[in-house]
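Design a sequence for this backbone.
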């Protein structure tokens, strides 16, 4: 009997052992999943807008302004829809990514063309862009020292550093910076950043721009793009930004960029006549933001210089029509400045004073010129303009804003002014 009881006990222990092991394994797995989920961050922002432009959209409206004094056209758009994903691995290691769908993304389809004998044709169904705006891995040693590497936002100018739709009043991003610089400007590189007290700094090492893609209307705006599966880095650049928060409610920032842009392409640039061309791009920027006492004011000033602009213009214009170059003149200097201010009128009511509801009435002024300084044979006065806007931003809750804006672009007297009316709704926030 004793032996039977011992055998039974051993049998029960043998059966229970894997069950207990399985239970512990499932518990450990569940704990791991919960810990992993708690370290994951999900967020994003998005914009839906409509605009009616009360001027001609004919591409000849600047070269033959007298013929196109009247006109009207409208558009609906999704300028930016973005998904943020981040993860904290622990021990100071974190990851973040930003996937952006611009203008609704891009679509193509295969169709049978009955008019052409039933041939299959691939057609573009929707214009737009899907891009990985950010992807970086960071090691944090202390608040004053963090190192990031990957696809990073270049922190030059106000809009690149603060481009959420809840961080500017207009329906669209500030027009001046969005014209003369890449926006949002992102490059694969390495950055070091940190914050100590009221000061924050960031320094970044990145590939240089490509002068082949510079142009008259956008200056260096398209120079960060690449038609290839990789970014050419024959030339390198550096960017730096310093922010100060000493005054409550006020941020003041300076930022800058410097790097060569010529020969940063696969197109042949050999030859004695090109040997001394560098195409050095230098940008200096100041911006500020003040948010206190139910009042918000923001502003920026950007100035950029391009060396060898005349020689780069001649080189680009002479390129093959099959090249990806704009084949346009480019200025030796560009400028953009703007200021906006708004007051929350709901704060005047005791009912809404301490709620998340806000109603800002705002005004904005911009001046920018992508051909601010030119060679004597260049005449692109239509690239310089002033812009005045007034509007409203209504926040029903903190992370959602409904926008309305009337603006007018004031051009040189030989051209026609460009008034427009825009409406939009946007959100920005973290879901988890």
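Sequence:
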């Amino acid at each position: 009997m004793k032996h039977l009881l011992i055998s039974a006990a051993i049998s029960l222990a043998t059966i229970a052992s894997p069950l207990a092991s399985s239970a512990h394994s499932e518990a450990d797995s569940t704990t791991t999943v919960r810990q992993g989920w708690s370290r994951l961050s999900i967020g994003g922002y998005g914009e839906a807008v409509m605009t009616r432009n009360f001027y001609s959209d004919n591409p000849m409206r600047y070269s033959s302004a007298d013929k196109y004094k009247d006109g009207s056209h409208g558009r609906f758009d999704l300028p930016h829809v973005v998904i943020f994903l981040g993860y904290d691995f622990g021990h100071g290691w974190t990851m973040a990514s930003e996937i952006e769908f611009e203008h609704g993304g891009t679509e193509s389809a295969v169709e049978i063309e009955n008019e052409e004998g039933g041939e299959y044709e691939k057609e573009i169904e929707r214009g737009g862009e899907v891009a990985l705006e950010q992807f970086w891995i960071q090691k944090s040693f202390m608040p004053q020292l963090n190192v990031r590497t990957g696809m990073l936002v270049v922190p030059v100018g106000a809009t690149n550093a603060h481009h959420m739709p809840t961080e500017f009043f207009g329906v669209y991003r500030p027009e001046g910076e969005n014209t003369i610089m890449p926006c949002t400007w992102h490059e694969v590189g390495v950055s070091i950043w940190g914050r100590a007290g009221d000061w924050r700094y960031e320094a970044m090492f990145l590939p240089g721009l490509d002068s082949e893609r510079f142009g008259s209307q956008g200056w260096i705006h398209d120079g960060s793009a690449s038609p290839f599966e990789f970014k050419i880095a024959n030339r390198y650049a550096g960017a730096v930004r310093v922010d100060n928060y000493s005054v409550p409610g006020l941020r003041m920032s300076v930022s800058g960029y410097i790097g060569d842009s010529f020969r940063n392409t696969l197109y042949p640039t050999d030859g004695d006549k090109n040997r001394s061309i560098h195409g050095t791009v230098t940008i200096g920027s100041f911006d500020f933001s003040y948010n206190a006492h139910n009042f918000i004011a923001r502003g920026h000033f950007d100035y950029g210089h391009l060396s060898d602009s005349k020689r780069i213009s001649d080189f680009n214009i002479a390129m093959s029509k099959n090249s990806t170059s704009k084949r346009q003149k480019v200025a030796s200097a560009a400028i953009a400045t703007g200021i906006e201010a708004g007051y929350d009128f709901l704060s005047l009511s005791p009912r809404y004073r301490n709620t998340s509801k806000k109603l800002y009435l705002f005004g904005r002024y911009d001046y920018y010129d992508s051909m601010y300084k030119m060679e004597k044979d260049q005449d692109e006065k239509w690239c310089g303009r002033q812009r005045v806007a007034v509007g409203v931003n209504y926040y029903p809750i903190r992370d959602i804003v409904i926008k309305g804006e009337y603006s007018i672009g004031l051009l040189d007297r030989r051209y026609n002014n460009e008034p427009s009316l825009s409406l939009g709704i946007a959100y920005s926030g973290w879901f988890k």
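The chain has four helices and 19 strands.
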